[in-house]
Amino acid sequence: MSILIYAESAEGKLKKVAFEIASYAKKVAETLGTTVTALTINSDNVSELAKYGVDKVLKVTNDKLAGFNAKAYADVIKQAAQQENTKLVVLSSSTDSIYLSPLVAVNLEAGYASNVIDLPVNTAPFQVKRNAFSNKAFNITEINTDIKVIGLAKNSYGIFENASTLTEEVFSPNLEDNDFDIKTESIEKSSGKVSIADADIVVSGGRGLKGPENWGLIEDLAAVLGAATACSKPVSDLGWRPHAEHVGQTGKPVATNLYIAIGISGAIQHIAGINASKVKVVINTDPEAPFFKVADYGIVGDAFDVVPRLIEKLKAFKAQNA
Ligand SMILES: Cc1cc2nc3c(=O)[nH]c(=O)nc-3n(C[C@H](O)[C@H](O)[C@H](O)COP(=O)(O)OP(=O)(O)OC[C@H]3O[C@@H](n4cnc5c(N)ncnc54)[C@H](O)[C@@H]3O)c2cc1C
Predict the structure, then answer these.
(1) What SUPFAM superfamilies does the database record attribute to this sequence (predicted)?
(2) Percent composition of the chain: helix, strand, coil (DSSP 3-state, to 5)
(3) Could you tell me which CATH number the domain at 3-180 has?
(4) Which of 22, 62, 120, 181 is the most buried (most CB within 10 A)?
């Protein structure tokens, strides 16, 4: 009974989260004395998974699965789990996998724990540590079903090389018409060069930026750092920035290595969505802004003064270290 992971890809290319859940599953597999099987759907090159401990890939290539479809993908994962007689399925906490995981759990009559942030505390009984209350606390959850599904919180474990010998197998699931009861009609991609989901660094702007005409500051800082751009809810509500950039409790969750908040007050609903980021930097004129309470580094200052100087310094640093 191999551990099954669903290794996600975008436009045929494996995503970073695939390597993180592979690294995680390998470590758990070592504890359980088993192997790791990865399911891929329309991924072009899966060999890289060997670097992170995957022993076998079940490779699905099917035009019907070209776009993400939670019901159909969950059915495919179920069939793969049944073929492999899997007792543990590991998914990421990406936007797609958050939809998928509960469906997979229902399909397999499995217990499901989301937002897992560490290796199992125990394997018998099976207990995992999870984020709770918008990352302000954690809990230990015990899953007692025969099959278990867990969703690993993004950026919580890390990516570790642990090479294995990979075998690749073509996997042809049976797709039913009712797998496609719900279809995605269109996808609107955010225009940023780096997507928030994949970014190591996110530069985010709030109402303190005064208007959309000043977003060059955010974009220039993001460009020099190779970061994605994001914004607070009012900024997207006002139409200053596209909704795809809205982060927070009701927007996209961010669990990045570095989150830079500029002119954002740090309301609880904003913090709830970005709190899992490793290092948080805030630039705000108001020393009493709530964001400073959760920030690792804070600059009390005017964004229109601080950010251009920061960009200048970063450019000079990059030039010196090129
Ligand atoms: C149900 C619900 C869900 C919500 N979900 C979200 C969510 O997902 N995400 C989200 O972001 N919000 C969310 N909100 C809104 C949230 O409560 C706040 O209103 C919002 O986050 C505030 O946005 P802001 O910090 O950009 O603006 P403001 O609160 O107006 O703060 C602007 C900040 O900029 C600073 N500033 C002003 N001028 C400058 C300058 N020149 N340089 C530097 N700093 C400056 C100010 O000191 C201030 O701290 C939600 C609210 C509700 C009720």
Answers:
(1) Adenine nucleotide alpha hydrolases-like, DHS-like NAD/FAD-binding domain
(2) 35, 25, 40
(3) 3.40.50.620
(4) 22
How many residues comprise the chain?
A: 322
pTM of the model: 0.81
Give dist(CA 194, CA 301) in Å, integer.
27
| Of 135, 213, 265, best ligand 1 pocket probe by most atoms within 8 Å of the beta carbon | 265
Tell me the C-alpha to C-alpha distance, in Å, between residue 307 and each of 30, 230, 310, 320.
47, 16, 5, 20
321 annotated among ligand-binding-site residues = no
Which atom number of ligand 1 is nearest to the Cα of residue 302? 42
* Ligand 1 contact, 15 CB (< 6 A): no
| Distance in Å, CA 131 to ligand 1 centroid | 24
What residues does each domain of the chain span? 3-180, 201-320
The helix/strand/coil state of 82 is helix
Task: Looking at the structure, give the CATH architecture of the domain made up of residues 201-320.
Answer: 3-Layer(aba) Sandwich (3.40)
Residue 109 pLDDT greater than 80, yes or no? yes
Mutational pocket test of ligand 1: of 264, 275, 277, 299, the residue with most ligand atoms within 8 Å of the beta carbon: 264
- Residues 82-92: tens digit of each pLDDT: 999 999 999 99
The whole-number average pLDDT for the span 133-156 is 93
Atom nearest to 231 CA in ligand 1: 11
